[in-house]
Amino acid sequence: MQPNQTHLQAPHLQFHLPAEADTVAFGAAFARALAPGLHIQLRGNLGAGKTALTRAMLQAAGHRGPVRSPTYTLAEPYSVVIGNQRVDVVHFDLYRLASPEEFLDAGFREYFGNDTICIVEWPEKAGPVLPSPDIMILLSIAGQGREIELQALSDQGMQCLNRLTAALTPPTP
Ligand SMILES: Nc1ncnc2c1ncn2[C@@H]1O[C@H](COP(=O)(O)OP(=O)(O)OP(=O)(O)O)[C@@H](O)[C@H]1O
Ligand SMILES: [Mg+2]
Question: Which stretch is the leader sequence (predicted)?
């Protein structure tokens, strides 16, 4: 039997983002590593930078206009370009989700598992009805800046983080 390469190589990345401009640059690099169908969960306290990172990703992928947390509507759809492909992205903010049942009743599960990229703030509010993510991101306040940790939880997630690592590694002279 072959060893389970997925678990042996699952990337766990950590970076310090000293200022908001670094979040913007990181979001742009991450946007280039995305692929259709990825499900990304964003965890972290109020003000940790979940929406700031999402905004940076969407704008780097060609979205013109504001990106705000969909605090009351809970979900906001976007259409962006990744590579040469137009891709649907749905940004969720589940902070005000009353119960996991509300998530199901709203039909949100239909977005997961097809070609739509789902980015979910406050995933813990949906509890067990939320499908498991490809990538889990944890943001935390660190001094004046932010700390970001990314963990791949599927093959698709691992491939995305490998593309991100390659993009962030400066070429050797
Ligand atoms: N690397 C950084 N260093 C310092 N400040 C940052 C950095 N990245 C983002 N910020 C700032 O942190 C704040 C993050 O706010 P944001 O709305 O993104 O938080 P959030 O995690 O989405 O919170 P909520 O849970 O309320 O939705 C913004 O004021 C933004 O300017
Ligand atoms: Mg937010």
Answer: none
| Number of the ligand 1 atom closest to the C-alpha atom of 52 | 18
Which strand (E) or helix (H) includes residue 85? strand 85-93
Q: Which of 94, 118, 124, 121 is nearest to 106 (CA)?
A: 94
- Give residue 141's identity as a one-letter amino acid code: I
Distance 62 CA to ligand 2 centre (A): 20
- Around ligand 1, the residues with Cβ closer than 6 Å are 17, 19-20, 22-23, 44, 46-52, 69, 121, 145-146
**What is the residue extent of each domain of the chain?**
16-165
For ligand 1, atom 8, which residue shows the shortest CA distance?
20
Residues, the chain, total? 173
Q: Rounded to two decimals, what is the model's pTM?
A: 0.94
If phi > 0 it is left, if psi is from -120 to 50 it is alpha, else beta; for residue 122 that is: left
How confident is the model over 64-96, as pLDDT tens digits?
Answer: 999 999 999 999 999 999 988 999 999 999 999
Ligand that comes closest to the CA of residue 27 = 1
Amino acid at 151: Q
Asked if the 16-165 domain carries CATH number 3.40.50.300, the reply is yes
